[in-house]
């Protein structure tokens, strides 16, 4: 059996510095105070590394980032937040060398709880060799790692048994003792084996992820975020206040002054008249602000269908909201009654997705009207994501408006012709799938069969109804649709 063992940091991941990943744990699992304390200690950690005491700096980083934090919170961040940032940093040449081997192991300086899920699910390694975080009997991290009497090379040898690894990947001068066990050694930069080029050349993509930070918090980025937050809070209050008190026609002009931007493509339909019932705007769901931005573009308050937004978001919303129950016949009647008096906005994905994928569309909207106008929504932000599954949803609009220059793109497609609706005999599911496909094509996204339940099961991990592995199996079944990830 061909086998391989590789370092994670500086080899499979391009960056050998682990500091930013601990900053993510500090921010997402604990909060701004721990985030700031860890950043203040960064010069000390760098000094220790420069003096050849990097292992002491790593222990200090682990202690400050994790001490007193519930292990369940650290596991949640490792499951829902870190994989996206790890994946963005993967060295593709190292991955091409690593992936064809039958047995794969990864050695990491980061505690296993922070990397194991990503390495096994996305890099498809069989084993992760690293330190384990210590926890007290109440489930809180002590900030220390469990002492292991076995050396790194001994643990690697235990994984592979009597047959040593065929190839070892590691940085030059990293001091990794396991490389001496390998039949062959390789150091970055790598050259991939061309005979494997027909295989999948990218790790399994991250479709669902969570967390507030858009960028990996390197020391410079983290400092910029900390300096911006007080200004961002003030700016968010000003933007929200203006949105609540100004008339719709004035908001686009004011948005340019206070840093926002909305790009509109396509031709929106005219307002409803006495002879016509309302139009159902079917939108992709990128953030909580989708219906608000649509109303701003159309310069009239269009009610939005909602499922699970917070009461604070409803209070702050400048447009009417129609809260549904997820009871099909009840929701159908509510939507019909709203369409009878005017336009309505619906996001049939049921939840947001940050990556360039569209979740499966609920077919309910297709059953209720033939006047369907698809609208492709997309957005760009600099510092903070506008929606989160783990945090308090009431903060979603505030975090969106805290970004220095939030940009929205709104693309109106033509109203569906009658032959593309249920009136021509098509099933609601066919109509919903058709709308999903044309919106995905407009945005350059990929269609998936995943739903809101799948998203929360992935982010909940073992606390959910199914495990991440179950979702991984589903992803593999539809991997042929992931064109950007296949050679």
Task: Describe the protein in words.
With 487 residues, this protein is an alpha/beta fold. It has 2 domains: 3-135 and 151-196, Rossmann fold, CATH 3.40.50; 219-485, no CATH class. Helix content is 40%, strand content 13%. The strands form 5 sheets. Strands 3-2-1-6-7 form a 5-stranded parallel beta sheet, sandwiched between helices. A 5-stranded mixed beta sheet has the order 8-15-14-9-12, sandwiched between helices. The protein has a two-stranded antiparallel ribbon with strand order 4-5. Helix 1 (19-30) crosses helix 5 (71-80), helix 2 runs antiparallel to helix 10 (219-245) and helix 5 runs parallel beside helix 8. The relative contact order is 0.11.
Keywords:
transferase; elongated; alpha/beta; glycerol-3-phosphate 2-O-acyltransferase activity; five-stranded parallel β-sheet; transmembrane; HAD_RAM2/GPAT1-8; Phospholipid/glycerol acyltransferase domain-containing protein; 487 residues; single chain; five-stranded mixed β-sheet
Number of helices: 19
Q: What is the straight-line distance between the termini?
A: 26 Å
Overall pLDDT score: 87
Number of strands: 16
Unreliable spans: 194-198, 462-487
The helical percent reads 40-55%
Beta-strand percent range: 5-15%
- Gross geometry: elongated
Q: What is the spatial order of strands in the main beta sheet?
A: 3-2-1-6-7
- Structural class call reads alpha/beta
Radius of gyration (CA) equals 25 Å
Q: What can be said about the biggest beta sheet?
A: 5 strands, parallel
> How many separate structural domains?
2
């Amino acid at each position: 059996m061909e086998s391989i063992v590789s370092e994670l940091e500086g080899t499979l991941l391009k960056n050998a510095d682990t500091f930013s990943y601990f900053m993510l744990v500090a921010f997402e699992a604990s909060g701004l105070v721990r985030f700031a304390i860890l950043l203040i200690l960064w010069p000390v950690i760098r000094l220790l590394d420069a003096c050849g005491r990097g292992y002491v700096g790593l222990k200090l980083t682990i202690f400050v980032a994790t001490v007193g934090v519930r292990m369940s919170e650290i596991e949640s961040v490792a499951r829902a937040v870190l994989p996206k940032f790890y994946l963005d940093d993967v060295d593709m040449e190292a991955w091409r060398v690593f992936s064809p081997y039958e047995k794969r192991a990864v050695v990491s300086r980061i505690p296993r709880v922070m990397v194991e899920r990503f390495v096994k699910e996305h890099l498809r390694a069989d084993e992760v060799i690293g330190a384990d975080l210590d926890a007290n009997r109440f489930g809180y991290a002590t900030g220390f790692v469990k002492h292991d009497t076995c050396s790194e090379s001994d643990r690697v040898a235990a994984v592979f048994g009597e047959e040593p690894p065929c190839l070892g990947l590691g940085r030059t001068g990293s001091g990794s003792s396991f490389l001496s066990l390998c039949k062959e050694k390789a150091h970055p930069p790598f050259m991939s084996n061309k005979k494997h080029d027909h295989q999948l050349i990218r790790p399994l993509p991250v479709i669902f992820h969570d967390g507030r930070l858009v960028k990996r918090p390197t020391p410079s980025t983290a400092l910029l975020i900390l300096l911006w937050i007080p200004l961002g809070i003030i700016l968010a209050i000003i933007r929200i206040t203006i949105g609540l008190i100004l008339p719709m026609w004035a908001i686009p002009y004011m948005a340019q002054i206070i840093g926002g931007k909305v790009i509109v493509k396509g031709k929106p339909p005219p307002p409803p008249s006495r002879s016509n019932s309302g139009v159902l705007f079917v939108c992709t769901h990128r953030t909580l602000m989708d219906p608000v931005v649509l109303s701003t573009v159309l310069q009239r308050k269009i009610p939005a269908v909602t499922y699970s937004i917070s009461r604070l978001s409803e209070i702050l919303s400048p447009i009417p909201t129609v809260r549904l129950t997820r009871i099909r016949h009840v929701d159908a009647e509510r939507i019909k009654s709203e369409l009878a008096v005017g336009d309505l906005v619906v996001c049939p994905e049921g939840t947001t997705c940050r990556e360039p994928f569209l979740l499966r569309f609920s077919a309910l909207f297709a059953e209720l009207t033939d006047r369907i106008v698809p609208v492709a929504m997309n957005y760009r932000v600099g510092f903070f994501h506008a929606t989160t599954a783990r945090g308090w949803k009431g903060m979603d609009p505030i975090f969106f408006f805290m970004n220095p220059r939030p940009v929205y793109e709104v693309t109106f497609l033509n109203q569906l012709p009658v032959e593309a609706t249920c009136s021509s005999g098509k099933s609601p599911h066919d109509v919903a799938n058709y709308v999903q496909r044309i919106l995905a094509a407009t945005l350059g996204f990929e269609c998936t069969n995943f739903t809101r339940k799948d998203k929360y099961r992935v982010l909940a991990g073992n606390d959910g109804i199914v495990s991440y592995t179950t979702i991984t199996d589903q992803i593999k079944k539809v991997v042929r649709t992931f064109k950007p990830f296949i050679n």
